[in-house]
User: Fold this.
Amino acid sequence: MRAAVVTTFGGPEAIEIAEVERPEPAAGQIRIKVAAAALNPVDAGVRSGVFGGAGQRLGLGWDVAGTVDATGDTASGFRPGDQVVALHHRGPVKTSGTHAEYVVVDAAAAAPAPVTVDAAHAAALPLNALSAAQALDLLELRPGQTLLVTGAAGALGGHAIQLAAHRGIEVTAYASERDEELTRSFGAARFVARGATPEPADAVLDAAVLGTEALAWVRDGGRYLGVIPGAAPAPERGVRTGSLEVVADGKLLTELVRLTDEGVLTPRVAGTYALADAAGAHARLAGGGVRGRLVLVP
Assistant:
């Protein structure tokens, strides 16, 4: 089968489309024939060597939407022909990913695909929606409390606003001035243009990776959560700090699919690319300004 891989680090030109062995599902796993797979910033990080793995052939891709075509022993809940979405999470440095014609995932990481969106939009859901939901759970906010989301126009930030508003949390979006209408459409009650200083909030979800700058916008005794594992600033003023490390969770993903079908979550696709043009998708991502996910289609 074909798969997008890197064997040397660099820019988009480092992406190779290689012929690799089709994976076989082990016990508790399912194999998915990929219909669509989103490109995320973490893939660019793997490509450029941020996470290491020199000297190996590294697979790319975390998100997948497609059809179950084989199951391993004890892989309960799915059978061949089922339409599914899943998060393929075995750390950023892995030998196989979802940017391929087939991928094997743990059955416990998959969920029935949404019925109200196409495969490309479904593929844009798992990583960012799971990250948003798990971030909100870590922040432990109650209805009526306030949340500031930096990078609010991004895929993670947008889902975080939608989920927080759905939970009754009052959200301030921090993003480029041109994104005010977009972030308010997600449910943000307030908007602060990048470069201005927001009012203190009960918690900050720092999807823009501003670090200590965003920490200053948390009220005393509040909570700061970053999105790069292990990179949170040191606590101060009684503010608890931490960072998110997303976990594959089919049960939670099933709930997020339900919210997608109900219109609470709206996965966004900025463009689709053939798997053979994965380097082109990486080049567009590197150019910045993308609103929504770029999606690869085998």
